[in-house]
Every structure is written in C-alpha cells, then in structure tokens.
Amino acid sequence: MSEVISRKSEGTEYEVVIGLEIHAQLLTDTKIFCGCSTRFGSGHNTQTCPVCIGMPGVLPVLNRRAVEFVVKTGLAMNCTISPYSRFARKNYFYPDLPKGYQISQYELPICGHGYVDIVTDGVERRIGLTRIHMEEDAGKNIHQKDGSLVDLNRAGVPLMEIVSEPDIRTPKEASAFMKKLRAILRYLGVCDGNMEQGSLRCDANVSLRLVGAEDLGTKAEIKNINSFRFVEKALEYEIKRQVNILREGGRIIQETRLWDSSAGITVSMRSKEEAHDYRYFPEPDLVPIEVSREWIDEIRAGLVELPDEKRKRYTEEFGLPDYDAGMLAEERAVAKWFEEAVRLGGKPKAVSNWMMSEFLRLLNETGREISEVPLTPACLVDMLKLMDNGTISGTIAKTVFEEMFHSGKEPGVIVKEKGLVQITDTSEIEKLIDEVLAANPAEVERYRSGETKLQGFFVGRIMKASKGKANPKLVNELLRKKLS
Hints:
- The chain is of the alpha+beta class.
- It folds into 3 domains: 4-298, no CATH class; 307-418, no CATH class; 426-483, Arc Repressor Mutant, subunit A.
- It has helices at residues 64-76, 171-188, 228-247, 293-301, 307-318, 322-330, 332-343, 348-366, 377-388, 394-407, 411-418, 426-439, 441-448, 455-465, 472-483, and strands at 4-7, 12-25, 80-81, 84-85, 88-91, 101-104, 111-120, 123-136, 140-144, 147-151, 158-164, 200-210, 220-225, 255-260, 265-271, 281-282, 289-290.
- The strands form 4 sheets. Strands 1, 2, 3, 7, 8, 11, 12, 13, 14 and 15 form a 10-stranded mixed β-sheet that branches. The chain has a 3-stranded antiparallel β-sheet with strand order 6-5-16, with no helix packed on it.
- Strand 14 and strand 15 (265-271) form a beta hairpin.
- The radius of gyration is 29 Å and the shape is elongated.
C-alpha cells in the first residue's frame, strides 16, 4: 500500500520510496575492541583508553558478546548468518573520530537478507532487510558558544547497523518499522532502545519516482532522527519539499539533510552529488570472523518468544482481541507482568482490561516504566477477587488500584484502612434510593412516563451518595423495583 502524491497540473503521480538505516548501541558491558565501560552518563572522557582513542601502535580485540548479540538479532529478524565475515576501515575525517577511520563492515557483513512484518491501518506488510553489520560508534561533539569540545566516552561503543530495503512507502510505515525493531531489540536484551540517550538512532533515505517506474529517484538522506514522532514529521516534510521542487520543474539534489525539530523542517547539511568515497579496505588488525553452525544453533536455541509470537498466542490461548494482545506484547516487561497475573489466577480479559486502561494511564502520567512501580501482579489478582466476591465495586477498585500503584500495599489493607468495603445491605441501599428519588421528583415522573433511560441518572446519583460503595448490581435491581 503506497503513498501516492498527485501532480494535478501535469496529470502524473509520484510514489514515495523510503529506506531506513537504524543504528543500535549494543548492551555489552565493555566496548567492541577494548575493555572500557559502555556505561552512559559518566564524566566526559573518563571511559577511554589508548585503543578507543586511536593511539598509535595499539591493537583492537573483538568483543565476543557483541558478535553474539548481532547474530541473535539477525536470527530474530529472519536473516541469513554468514559463517565468514570481516571488518573494514571506513576512512573519513571528523573531530569525534580520533583514528581518522571507523572500523565497520563493508562487503562481507555478518547478517543479510532478512525481514520484519509491520501492520499499519490494519494492513500487514513485509519490510526487507538488506543487511545487519557491526561497527564502532564515534565520539560526541559538544558545541558551545566559545567553541566545540569532543567527548570520546562513546567512541568504540559497539554499534549494530540495520539497513532496510527501500520497501517503505509512507512515514507511518517508517515509524511502525522503527517501533517493531525497537520492540525486538528490547525483547532480545541487546539494546535498551533509548532514543533520547542516542542508543537507538535513525537515518532515513527518501525519494520520489513516477508511479510504475522501476528506477529509484534521487534520494535525500535525513540524519540522526531520535524519536518515532520525528521520523514521521521529518519524512512528511521532506516528501512535500521534494514534490514542490518537482512541480516547479526543478531537480532533486542528492544530499544529506538534518531534521530541525523546533522549526519542523529539514535543512541541508552537505551535498552528496558524487558518492562519498570512504576508501574502504579490509581492517588489517582484525582477523575475519568465523561463526560456526554450532554457535548459531546455540544462540537460536536461546531466543525468547518475540512480540508477534506472543500476540498470536494471546489471541489464541487467552481469547484477547488482537489490539489488546498487540499492546500487551509490545514490551517484554509488560508481557511478563500480564502473564504472571494470569498464572496467579487472574482472568486474562479482566487483567488485560485493567492493564490497558488504569495501569497504562498511570504509567503515562508518571512517566515510569512498569518495572519501576511497586504494584505487583499478585496485588491486581487479589483486587479482582475482592470485586468478584462483592467486597468492593468497580468504582472503589479504581481508588484501590491507584493506591496500589503508588504504594504497593495489598488491596485488602487499602480497603480496610480507607473503609472502602462495598455496601451490600439492602436496607441501607434502599434508604439511599429513597433519598435520591425524593430529591428528584420531576425525573421520577418522567421515568414513569416512559423515559427509562433516566435509570442511569438515578444510579449515578445513588453511587455518588454512597461515595462509590454501593453494590451497583443491587442498586439497579432495587431501583427498578422502586420505580415500577
């Protein structure tokens, strides 16, 4: 399903073609070619050594864990794992690249020809992957009013570059693709996916071509986009920019552009009219990588159940709607929490309802991860039991749930401390009903004249009068009797 833009003035149409390059920092404890820490947030240039700052005469030593993480990712994304691959030197000069070259992979990457499936607007599409390769990250330039400084803590952090085929057709699909990759990487535990800290970054290539044409148009590359929303916004702007140029009879220039999020535009960074010559050649200080079939099988055996598999299982095993199943399966920690609640006896749909509504609302409001709150699956299950046996109503349960979310207290303790036990005494409820009916005689008359929808009005007033403690089922039953 492609995004097609009409040129009404000339009766022609353009098709958008998008390819993404995703850079993911690997969650290894040490850098890819030395023993320096990869911990984020330390003092500038405190996690460096002669190897990662490129001193003369030093030799890199490959981090085996980094190789394992890339193979694991390739298997999860349906790639072919190459038994033989090697590193290359990618030569270019920039202040944050102390050696004057980056150790990367070129003609022999470790993973190739994979795919992931995405769903947008209810339509599933398969997005091909050209390759996944390993490389080292560069340092970071820090620009100030009186000049620029370089922090090399990030230099040598292991990176995985995931390159898609030009199969993406809309900004929405690009965002969905990024989200799917992030979910898989987090499930595998190979990248934390923190886009604000730069551990997951995206470059987007976008071009237009006439519908039906096979050759790709001239592309513009948008560098270092660091959020899903910005991926969509940057692509939407760039597509409109290119359309306007073509409508006016202009020519698209092959260039690298940056996304200015504050202005909502892309701006030119450098021209790439001629292909940039990085002068790749095999890295002489590292031997080729040989990955045995036995090691690949061992890594494959350790793969976890991935989001798509979980979503399918949740619909088939628990009878959840596809939307609910997809939301619960998107994050591994959320899925684990849900499954534990079900294991402890919670009915899957009831657990899902509370997680999809109150739990996600509170997580969004507080900006916390599910692992950071004291509320446990056992507490939710106990609260659901209190609802089932009539101890508390659904209204009271919302109060209990929010208190559990913030304090981690057991629901029984909260109910006792706050005096939230549900009113089930019929005489007490009848008294509340009589008071509400006496206070609203006009509405009673209208009800008895046929406006039965007013029952909801009365129930609301009664529940308010009881501070949410009255049993709703009893309220409705006794109210109907009184009104008839």
